Amino acid sequence: MTPFNSSDLFIMYCSVESDKFSKGTGSKSNPALQTSKNLQMCPRGYQLKSVLLVAIILISVTAKAQFKKGDKLIGGYFAITTQRSSDQNGIDIQTMKSNSFSLRPFMGVFLNEKWAIGGSLGYSVSYQKNWFSTPDIQTYKNRSFSLGIFSRRYFSISEKFFFMVHGEGSFARGSFITSNVFLEHTSQKYDLGINIRPMFVFVPSPRWGFEGGLGSLSFTHSRFLSTGKKSNFFDMSYGGLSLGVTYYIHRPE
């Protein structure tokens, strides 16, 4: 198939307008010569309209790329998750409520207009409380600091809107506190985690971007240093809210 050319659009538009002009003035033109003389026969007013039409269409279908290789990004985001559930295990009824909060500043660089990589720091805290039908309450508190590396893939929706998939691997070190009505125990642990988070990005100006998303997919491997106990945890969250802001430093042309 022959590629569509902006000059073809100009000629087609001008041909129609020239034909209208010829009919309006009562003049007749040879159809065989009409195509080859479109530009010459097109009135000046219609020439301007043709150029504007071509410019508008080209702008709409060839939006300028927002990012390029070597551009840098500095920002941060926070995530909030809350959950409540109730379950009956035999004669015991358990009600669980959990909340978590994480804050993660980051910086990175674009490899091209679609991919960016970088590193991050993180702080997270979570709290879970379980109520039982027997007079017992269990609480779990987790607090940790982390280092991570990330990769981002941007999918352009328009010049200012993007869909973005943020994938990150992290190492975290922190404390885990368990308690009930009888005792409290604190242990140190480390986590190795992988997190994938879909987000939408709004870029109102070349320098600033605002991010938002719901949900994430994560896997965490934990090891408790005091006991050597290990655990693996897979989580698919639909209700976690993520919000962030990013400042872009564009490489000079």
Provide a descriptive summary of the structure in words.
There is one protein chain. By secondary structure, this protein is of the alpha+beta class. The chain folds into 2 domains: 6-61, no CATH class; 72-249, Porin (Beta Barrel), CATH 2.40.160. Helices cover 18% and strands 59% of the residues. The chain has an 8-stranded antiparallel β-barrel. Strand 1 (72-89) and strand 2 form a beta hairpin. The longest helix has 20 residues, at 6-25. It starts with 5 loop residues before the first helix and ends with a strand. Residues 1-49 and 51-64 have low confidence and may be disordered.
What key phrases describe this protein's structure?
about 250 residues; Porin; 2 domains; 4 helices; about 20% helix
Terminal CA distance: 34 Å
The total count of helices amounts to: 4
| C-alpha-based Rg, rounded | 30 Å
Give the overall shape: elongated
- What is the domain tally? 2
Mean pLDDT: 77
CATH architecture of the largest domain: Beta Barrel
* Poorly predicted spans: 1-49, 51-64
Largest sheet: 8 strands, antiparallel, barrel
- The largest sheet has its strands arranged as 1-2-3-4-5-6-7-8
Annotate the secondary structure layout.
Elements: H1 6-25, H2 31-34, H3 38-41, H4 44-61, E1 72-89, E2 92-110, E3 115-132, E4 137-156, E5 161-179, E6 184-202, E7 208-224, E8 230-249
Antiparallel strand pairs: 1-2, 1-8, 2-3, 3-4, 4-5, 5-6, 6-7, 7-8
Helix pairs in contact: 1-4
Summarize the model shown.
The chain is an alpha+beta fold and 253 residues long. The chain is built from four helices and eight strands; from the N terminus they run ααααββββββββ. The protein has an eight-stranded antiparallel barrel with strand order 1-2-3-4-5-6-7-8.
